């Protein structure tokens, strides 16, 4: 297949996931608990995704590029 072996760079790894209810509160507690480790992660390497769960309510997913995942989060 064309492009099959082409490098595509690093992929973001899912390091934390929070489901409703109160996903936003759980995310804030997790972020505060891991503040030191997250301080080492470049801003461009971390993604915080918000969405709606199928049954309603907010969900939160945290992804960090593989090369920047701190050891205590990986």
Structure description:
It contains two helices and three strands; from the N terminus they run βααββ. The protein has about 70 residues and is α+β, with helices and mostly antiparallel strands. The protein has helices spanning about 25-35, 35-40, and strands at about 10-20, 45-50, 60-65. It is flat.
Strand percentage, roughly? Answer: 25-35%
In order across it, which strands form the biggest sheet? 1-3-2
Judged by helices, strands and strand pairing, the structural class is alpha+beta
Q: With helices defined by DSSP (H or I, 4 residues minimum), what is the helix count?
A: 2
The value of Rg in angstroms is: 15 Å
Largest sheet: 3 strands, antiparallel
Instruction: Estimate percent helicity.
Output: 10-25%
What is the H-and-E element order? Answer: EHHEE
Strand segment count: 3
Distance between the termini: 32 Å
Mean pLDDT: 91
The best one-word shape is flat
The residue ranges in which pLDDT falls below 50 over 5 or more consecutive positions are none
Compact overview of the structure:
By secondary structure, the chain is of the alpha+beta class. It has 2 helices and 3 strands, in the order E-H-H-E-E. The chain has a 3-stranded antiparallel beta sheet with strand order 1-3-2, covered by helices on one side.
């Amino acid at each position: 297949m064309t492009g099959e072996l082409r490098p595509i760079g690093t992929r973001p790894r899912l390091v934390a996931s929070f489901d409703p209810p109160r996903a936003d509160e759980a995310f804030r507690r997790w972020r505060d608990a891991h503040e030191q480790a997250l301080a080492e992660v470049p801003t461009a390497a971390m993604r915080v995704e918000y969405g709606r769960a199928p049954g309603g309510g907010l969900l939160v997913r945290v992804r960090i590029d593989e090369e920047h995942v701190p050891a205590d989060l990986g």
